[in-house]
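Narrative summary of target 7.
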Amino acid sequence: MLVLVTYDVNTEDQKGRARLRKVAKICVNYGQRVQNSVFECIVDPGQCKILKSQLTEVMDKDKDSIRFYYMGSHYENKIEHFGAKESFSQEGVLIL
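Modeled conformation, tokenized:
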């Protein structure tokens, strides 16, 4: 299933900037960055639970915000993109 993860981490102090790096690093392990604080993650229910647990463990619940949008398994027709930074299909073939 596709899960869209968005976050807003308060970076007014050094601890906040460290949390921001940790949150981004966790998200990179599960998906593709599509905007500065937005990731598209193709995960199964178990991976999603782990991702959510890792992110909520790192965040400061009084200062930060993380949102999960569950797009499901048939998400291809639910996404439109306009402008720069065209993304690639995470489920397609990637040749390095």
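The beta strands are 2-8, 31-35, 38-42, 65-72.
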